[in-house]
Amino acid sequence: MRPARLSVVTATAAVVALTVVTGCAEKSDTKAGDGAVQVIAKDTSCEVSKKEFPAGHVELAIENKGSKVTEVYLLFPDDRIVTERENIGPGTKAKVTAEVKAGTYEIACKPGMKGDGIRQKVTVTGGRTATRSPEMDAAVAAYRKYVQEQADETLPKVKVFTDAVRAGNIEAAKKAYAPSRIGWERTEPVAESFGDIDPKVDVRADGLEPGQKWTGWHRLEKELWQDKKLGKDATVLADTLDKDLLDWQKRVGRAEITPTSMANGAKELLDEVASGKVTGEEERYSHTDLVDFKANVEGAQESYELLKPVAKKNDPALVTELDKQFAALNKLLDQYRDGADSYEFTSYEKVGKEQRKELSDGVNALAEPLSKLAAAVVK
């Protein structure tokens, strides 16, 4: 679920966890690379240095000059996401590299990480196209297969959960809840790229837009753990979740996947951990945050491992650091796991402040080098 869905109460606390992740935040004296499209995000404006630029590998050099944490998107005309960088803190910079074809797009800045954002239309002209090596093509093909497999494997697990809800079996539904989310959490950036599915299945109450009906996993999570009873519309909610996730499964095969979107998606998954799992916001009723945490890390690592042969040729030092930090973070998570292959994790309400800080530090240590993966892949 998008980090934008932070409650007002916890937003300040979340910024602490995000401090390193947000600007993998470069310092203000860092200069944008030659040819980069500079994006100045403010509280009331989104300034773009170029409204027209050539196709190929495009770098967005983003600076947040506003007072709110922001996110910046490059969007297709139908609001599908080409690339994004979330959780950019005030006064910080970030870079994101994307493979972009000729066409019309929009760049959107979202101060406060809410709503449709402040948008600028841009045109990507023909001419050069991004070149890909056979290794890059192989990575994309393998990742596309992985994403489809995760969607295919999720549906029967979700049905176990929704069948229990329909039967009114609260304990069985609780047991099936976290496992039903693992495939989604591993591949969430691809699911979010469609724009309309995530708000239906993975939104929290504080992330609802005006007039939006609350549906999906977290609505049922609240009923199961906080309300301790299933409401009169629980069966409809279960049916709707099945339907929306079937839509996701059918559309995954048509997702736009590129080497840079894989790399950026890995970074987005670490942002998801920093903004929702480490803070305890994601699973605030069930406290199954560590299951999501592990799935996010697994998804990020899958993207990285597939891109690793290319990255190792271009930036071997980065690969060495990423190997080290993935291993360290997985070791931290294993402390809370009931066996090496188990997805039974300690309830997050039992994880103390110092332990949460240790997990946050591990995420930040990985997020910083991971933010450089896309650039390394296209060197």
Topology of this protein?
Layout: H1 8-22, E1 37-41, E2 46-48, E3 52-54, E4 56-64, E5 70-75, E6 81-88, E7 93-100, E8 103-109, E9 118-125, H2 134-166, H3 170-186, H4 188-192, H5 198-201, H6 217-227, H7 234-252, H8 259-277, H9 289-314, H10 316-334, H11 353-370, H12 373-377
Parallel strand pairs: 1-4, 3-9
Antiparallel strand pairs: 1-2, 4-7, 5-6, 5-8, 8-9
Tell me how many strands there are. 9
Regions with little confidence, pLDDT below 50 for 5+ residues: 3-33
- Average of per-residue pLDDT values: 89
Give the percentage of residues in beta strands.
Answer: 15-25%
Tell me the overall shape: globular
* Helix fraction by DSSP (H/I, runs of at least 4): 40-55%
Order of helices and strands: HEEEEEEEEEHHHHHHHHHHH
Structural class category:
alpha+beta
Number of helices: 12
Q: Main sheet: which strands, in order across?
A: 3-9-8-5-6
Radius of gyration: 20 Å
Query: Roughly how many Å apart are the termini?
Result: 31 Å
Q: Report the major sheet.
A: 5 strands, mixed
